[in-house]
């Protein structure tokens, strides 16, 4: 926000810049970058998106925040045109009809009323006045640069908003994908248990297993059915949340595709949006300081008027009171209680805060980047161990399933193996999701 001073642009809104030209200051509109342009409709985009890039595209198309930023950039173009018009010729009409009554006593002495030498008994005027600021190049250039800075801040804010939207959509997509993976595993396990259930019923009827032993397995199948329903509800909930974030109206329960892990990128430098905002803040503070200086410069305007002015309302007097006038108006600040130095102190405090935030952000981003790299390496090692254990558990479950058909393995022992296999599969899903989160978080940090 610009520090406002008398004489500075009243009510400057944020937006795209105008730069002062050579010679007399002139405006030149700066077009908004493509990153904030409204996304065109994509005919091939499905009504029910399933891939991460489809959700991201629809979220950008439907985001009111990004559309608002585009509108604010357009508003600033209008603000820059308004500032250019303010420096042009301004024409105003002035009309007045004032009567100053005077009451006298019997001796002709004034009892009530203004001195007639001052008031002339009245003032009747109809004037058209034209004025234009002159010799204000410093003021005009600084105003244009302020608008330019505001436009850059807006576009940078739009990039940050787009990145935050991408991060939120990606994070929720990974949550929904993990829920779907768990649902898929639960369904597969339930199908295996049901097949095993049919075989065990035959073995119980054949006297190989007791009825009480089978009841434990039967209870496990029913429990797995409940787990599948719980996982289905969890996936529906997470998918609904993802669609709500992206502005998708579809409610069908469909499968989403596995996300492609992003490539490893280095940490973004000073031109990244998160860092650039502090560079823009520094420029804004510099322009605010120049705005203080501009306020204390003499202000000169050329004024021309034409019309009529008379102290009498009689037609004869009005007919002989038509004329023109012109000249210069000069304003020079003399003393305001040392407000200029106070404004400088205020801006210096803002600059100290800006430097502190930027230093903290630089250290924080580097620490987060290194931490995410460490988490990814640890996740890779953990996934390797879990996959190895899962292969062993799957082999044990398969061998126990064959021995169960001959009665060489107790049902409870088989159920324990299945439970261990189920726990490892859940751990694998969690580890995969955590790894993807770290990779996408690193990718976000590399661009932010």
From TrEMBL:
Keyword terms: Cell outer membrane, Membrane, Signal, Transmembrane, Transmembrane beta strand
Q: Where in the cell is it found?
A: Cell outer membrane
Signal peptide residue numbers: 1-27
Q: Which GO terms describe its molecular function?
A: efflux transmembrane transporter activity; porin activity
Q: Name one GO cellular component term.
A: cell outer membrane
Q: Which InterPro entries match?
A: TolC-like (IPR051906)
SUPFAM superfamilies noted in UniProt:
Outer membrane efflux proteins (OEP)
Q: What is this protein called?
A: TolC family protein
């Amino acid at each position: 926000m610009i520090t406002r001073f008398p004489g500075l642009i009243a009510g400057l809104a944020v937006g795209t810049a105008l730069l002062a030209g050579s010679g007399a200051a002139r405006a030149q509109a700066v077009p908004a970058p493509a990153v904030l342009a409204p996304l065109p409709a994509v005919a091939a985009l499905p009504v029910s998106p399933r891939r991460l890039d489809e959700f991201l595209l629809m979220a950008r198309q439907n985001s009111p925040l990004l559309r608002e930023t585009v509108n604010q950039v357009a508003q600033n173009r209008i603000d820059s045109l308004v500032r250019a018009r303010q420096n042009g010729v301004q024409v105003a009409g002035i009309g007045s009809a004032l009567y100053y009554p005077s009451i006298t006593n019997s001796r002709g002495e004034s009892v009530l009323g203004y001195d007639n030498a001052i008031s002339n008994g009245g003032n009747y005027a109809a004037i058209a006045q034209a004025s234009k600021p002159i010799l204000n190049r410093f003021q005009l250039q600084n105003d244009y640069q302020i608008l330019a800075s505001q436009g850059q801040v807006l576009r940078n804010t739009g990039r940050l908003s787009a990145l935050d939207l991408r991060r939120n959509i990606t994070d929720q997509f990974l949550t929904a994908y993990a829920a779907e993976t768990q649902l898929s595993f639960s369904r597969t396990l339930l199908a295996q248990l049901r097949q095993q259930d049919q075989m065990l019923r035959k073995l119980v009827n054949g006297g190989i297993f007791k009825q009480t032993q089978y009841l434990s397995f039967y209870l496990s199948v029913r429990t797995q059915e409940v787990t599948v329903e719980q996982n289905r509800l969890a996936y529906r909930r997470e998918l609904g949340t993802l669609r709500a974030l992206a502005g998708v109206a579809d409610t069908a329960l469909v499968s989403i595709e596995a996300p492609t892990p992003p490539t490893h990128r280095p940490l973004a430098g000073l031109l990244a949006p998160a860092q650039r905002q502090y560079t823009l803040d520094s420029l804004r503070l510099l322009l605010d300081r120049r705005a203080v200086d501009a306020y204390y410069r003499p202000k000169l305007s050329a004024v021309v008027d034409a019309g009529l002015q008379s102290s009498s309302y009689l037609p004869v007097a009005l007919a002989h009171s038509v004329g023109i006038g012109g000249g210069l108006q000069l304003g020079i600040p003399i003393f305001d209680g040392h407000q200029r130095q106070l404004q400088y102190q205020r801006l210096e405090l803002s600059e100290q805060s800006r430097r502190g935030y930027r230093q903290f952000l630089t250290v924080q981003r580097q620490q987060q980047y290194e931490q995410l790299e460490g988490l990814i390496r640890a996740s890779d090692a953990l996934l390797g161990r879990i996959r190895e254990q899962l292969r062993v558990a799957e082999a044990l479950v398969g061998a126990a399933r064959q021995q169960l058909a001959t009665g060489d393995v107790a049902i409870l022992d088989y159920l324990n193996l299945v439970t261990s296999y189920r726990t490892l599969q859940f751990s694998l899903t969690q580890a995969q999701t955590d790894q993807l989160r770290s990779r996408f978080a690193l990718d976000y940090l590399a661009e932010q």
